[in-house]
Amino acid sequence: xxxxxxxxxxxxxxxxxxxxxxxxxxxxxxxxxxxxxxxxxxxxxxxxxxxxxxxxxxxxxxxxxxxxxxxxxxxxxxxxxxxxxxxxxxxxxxxxxxxxxxxxxxxxxxxxxxxxxxxxxxxxxxxxxxxxxxxxxxxxxxxxxxxxxxxxxxxxxxxxxxxxxxxxxxxxxxxxxxxxxxxxxxxxxxxxxxxxxxxxxxxxxxxxxxxxxxxxxxxxxxxxxxxxxxxxxxxxxxxxxxxxxxxxxxx
Length: 251
What we know:
Keywords: Amino-acid biosynthesis, Aromatic amino acid biosynthesis, Oxidoreductase
Radius of gyration: 19 Å
GO molecular function, one term: shikimate 3-dehydrogenase (NADP+) activity
CATH topology of the largest domain: Rossmann fold
Structural class: alpha/beta
InterPro entries: Aminoacid_DH-like_N_sf, NAD(P)-bd_dom_sf, Shikimate_DH-bd_N, Shikimate_DH_fam
Number of strands: 12
Order of helices and strands: EHEHEEHEEHEHEEHEEHEH
Number of domains: 2
Number of helices: 8
Pathway: Metabolic intermediate biosynthesis; chorismate biosynthesis; chorismate from D-erythrose 4-phosphate and phosphoenolpyruvate: step 4/7
Helix content: 25-40%
Strand content: 15-25%
Pfam family, one: Shikimate_dh_N
Low-confidence stretches: none
């Protein structure tokens, strides 16, 4: 992309209650540092996904969008095309918009997660528990498959495909040495909240990974860390997925 053109290029984030968002600050600082004077990034905070088409029709110069909670799955019906990866995952967090207003969905979450957890992995990290079953959890599951790590989901309700929080005992924790929180539990301002787990079951062999980045250390991570567990928040994942989105928007 040429750094200075007359045409204004607009990017943004689709979500609900996203004033805290990482993306707006990150991209606008990126544009300023890189002298992309023709680029701007805004939050499009919508109460319902039904408001999405209005953004596409009314905002001129819109080139790309990120998508966050709770629309990563709902957005798919409004898109003209999906990348092969997004189709396999079943969730979208990045959209390109052509001059003819054709929308294509991608998933860069899996890329960010995969790259950020890889340095932490050791031989004994063979199985993971994914807390939550929303759009973000699907990208995590896809990344784990790519890393050849087995996984199971944990939800408030159990079925043949997922555990219930109350079911997680010592034998399960011994088997699953990676615990990943993909839920919004513990996000600012509710910083004292944490997933319903027996944190005494965490050990030095475990990895506790939280997709949340605000606060920097969630209650989930603090409680796991107190047991000697290796912990990581979602900040690096966000940076990596954002840079991947920027690359896609400029292809």
